[in-house]
Amino acid sequence: MKEEMSSVDIRYIVRELQWLVGSRVDKVYHDGDEIRFKLRTKEGRADLTLEAGKRFHLTSYIKEAPKQPSSFTMLLRKHLGGSFIDAIEQHQFDRIVKIRIGDYTLIGELFRRGNVILVDSENKIVAALRYEEYKDRAIKPKAEYKFPPARENPLEVSFERFLQLMRENEELELVRALARKLNMGGMYAEEISLRAGFEKTTPVKELSDEDLKRVYEAMMGTFNDEPKPNIVFKDGTMHDVVPIELKIYEGLEKRYFPTFSEALDEYFGKITLEKAKIEQTRRLEEKKRQLTATLRKQEEMLKGFEKAMRENQEIGDSIYANYALVEGLLEEFRKATETLGWEEFKKRIEGGKKAGNKVALMVKGIDPKEKAVTIELDGKKVRLYLEKSIGENAEIYYEKAKKFRHKYEGALKAYEDTKRKLEEVEKLIEEEQKKELNVKKLERRKRKWFEKFRWFVSSEGFLVLAGKDASTNEVLIKRHMDENDLYCHADVYGAPHVVIKDGQKAGEKTIFEACQFAVSMSRAWSQGLYSADAYWAYPNQVTKQAPSGEYLGKGAFMVYDKRNWMHGLPLKLAVGVINYEGEEYVVCAPVEAIKAHTDKYILIRPGSMKKGELVKKLRGVLKKWGYEVREEDLNAILPPGGGEIVEVVG
Q1: In 129-168, at which residue ranges do the beta strands (DSSP E only) sit?
Q2: Using CB atoms within 10 A as the burial measure, which of 262, 381, 595, 613 is most buried?
Q3: What is the 3-state secondary structure (H, E, C) of 577-623?
């Protein structure tokens, strides 16, 4: 089963991903050997994954980001966040990817263990996933980055050079000669042999120059074949993922994909999730082992506490059961130590033991410091304190028994808690083992043309569009404003252009809402204003023609002749989910426009709450209503700057 991409795979994926050039890096995530870029592309959000030693493609399998970003993550975010992708390249025909972002280049080494290295404009290493030293190069901070020693590039080799390489060791089989001499894996060497019409085991010495010409042409044809991405199955299990149709897999089950990225994502995504499932079970098994070990220790402690509790209780009982004997011994020992002293008392006891004196034989220890004598009573060693009464001596053991009982009860509670946790973990392991690997990809709905802009549907049912930036402002006016539309603009520098589609049929309500939208989506919102002015005009009044001696930049237009002003328009919007053309959309629009299409909405206005916090609160409300909305989708529809929630309706 394939576990990493080949040089051929990288060639095809790099060609396919050229459309990402110009995309903005919104955020960078790092988990283990994997780096994921959240990109803002001309088509919307895209997630690009680069896993050291493994793979490079767009992904819809999004792992939960680590709660604490690594230092490597923070460094990548610092240098790459907010910048744009300028180039995506493969280094020669090696398993090395280069992503140029602003003044930096991120290099992904996809061979062996792999690595991810960030270099600056002078090719000096800024940071790396792993710092390593080899005989011919070193991956360490501030060192110049060097590529691994160059190997023959089959895409650039001439037939004469190809012939020379193949003739260097004619004893080799064709498949081995191709794989070793021309930097390709054994699979593609086998495919080329098959396409050329030769057995892969044919010795090179048996092939004429004309035969090798056929092999050369088959090689060039293979590496420049039309993309036909597919996953190959063997016995119902994924076996390989390839960018082109391969003869070596003829007759096997295949699943085709529109793009190689989608095929790679499906293949490696499922492998990643399966590994995650195994990893989850592994962690649970480790937890089970820890809890089992804890449980054994607690069982031993319980036995110890129970034994100590029982023994101390029994000693106390023995003292009272042998009341007369113990009282007599206490009195006798007390008088002897007072009369003879402790040293002489010890000598007399030792002498008595030799003589076979019963009382002396009962004594098992003497402690002058504590003024205590240990005797054997009913088979148990009992420490008697001579300065205490028989009752006080018994109470000492009863108190000890009581303490051990408390310890036993506490340990029993801890034991039961551990046992409960162990049962929960065992249940989780059982559930994980029963689970089938049925993974749903995060399918991204194809965006409709109007979603490139800020937009809403007026209370009268008219589509209203607004630019998001200079580029979309330019596109909106040049490509999407027709003669039957109406144009609106706020009296605020840098405000977006707003177009009411088929607006010349619209009523005053729609025009009011469009002008209100124009002021709300301008910097007046971030400045905390509560009202601003806007106007509307006809499309033929809007032109790229600048006054003499002036230049209009990207997204800028002139409006000539009469402007129809609306003054004191309130900056207030609502967020809600509406149904438009059979699909549900989260929309931020003037309140009356939202109210006309849904009975649940959230009123917002300019305020001190940061945009990120506002997004989280809005997302929370929408979630309660049953709508799972991504933060970036809410970010895209809200006006610039912070705000505050005025009211939640519904």
Answers
A1: 132-133, 138-139
A2: 262
A3: EEEECCEEEEEEECHHHHHCCCCCEEEEEEEEECHHHHHHHHHHHHH
Low-confidence ranges of the chain (pLDDT < 70): 275-280, 433-445
Which residue in this structure is represented by tokens 């283990």? 32
Q: Are 141 and 88 in contact (CB under 8 A)?
A: no
Query: Rounded to the nearest 10 degrees, what angle do helices 260-321 and 7-16 cross at?
Result: 110
Instruction: Give residue 277's pLDDT.
Output: 66
Cα(223)–Cα(211) distance, integer angstroms: 19
* Pairing status of strand 486-490 against strand 463-466: unpaired
Query: How far apart are alpha carbons 196 and 240 in whole angstroms?
Result: 22
Q: How far apart are CA 199 and CA 175, in angstroms?
A: 9
Gyration radius from the chain CA atoms: 41
Residue whose pair of structure tokens reads 């690009």 in the numeric block: 48
128: part of which helix (H) or strand (E)?
A: strand 125-128
Tokens 């480790």 belong to residue: 286
What is residue 428's predicted lDDT score, i.e. its pLDDT? 85
> Given this model, what pLDDT does residue 437 score?
40
Q: Which whole-number Å values give the CA distances from 339 to 333, 371, 383, 389, in the listed order?
A: 10, 14, 21, 19
> What is the amino acid identity at position 54?
K
State the DSSP H helix or E strand holding residue 263, giving kind and residue range, or none if neither: helix 260-321
Least Cα distance to 554 among 469, 491, 489, 479 occurs for: 469
Tokens in use for 254?
């295949």
**Amino acid, res. 524:** A
SS (H, E, C) 535-547: EEECHHHEECCCC
How far apart, in whole angstroms, are the C-alpha atoms of residue 64 and residue 74?
Answer: 17
Residue 205: Cβ within 10 Å count: 10
Token pair of 535 as six digits: 């106007």
CA–CA distance, 275 with 113 (Å, rounded to integer): 17
Give the burial class of 447: count Cβ atoms within 10 A of its Cβ; 0-12 exposed, 13-18 middle, 19 or more buried: exposed
Nearest to 211 by CA among 250, 151, 162, 152: 162
User: 568 burial class (0-12, 13-18, 19+ CB within 10 angstroms)?
Assistant: exposed
DSSP-derived secondary structure for 219-261:
HHHHHTPPP--EEEEETTEEEEEESS--GGGTTSEEEE-SSHH
pLDDT of residue 75: 94
d(CA 613, CA 164): 66
Give the integer Cα–Cα distance in Å for 508 and 241: 58
Helix (H) or strand (E) holding 39: strand 34-41
DSSP class of residue 447?
P
Altogether, the residues listed in the chain come to a count of 650
Q: Which residues 6+ apart lie within 8 Å of 66 measured at CB?
A: 29, 30, 31, 73
- CA–CA distances in Å: residue 182 to residues 98, 156, 563: 21, 10, 69
- Write out the two tokens for 505: 């049929």
Quote the strand ranges of 262-406, DSSP E: 363-367, 372-377, 380-385
C-alpha–C-alpha distance, residues 304 and 466, integer Å: 77
User: What is the separation of C-alpha 60 from the centre of its chain, rounded to a whole number of angstroms?
Assistant: 12
Q: Please check whether residue 362 is in contact with residue 382, taking contact to mean a CB–CB distance below 8 angstroms.
A: no
Cα 590 from Cα 510, distance rounded (Å) = 10
Helix and strand element counts for the chain (H, E)? 17, 29
- Structure token digits, residue 412: 């029993």
Joined together, the tokens standing for residue 548 give 């003499």
The three-state secondary structure class of 123 is coil
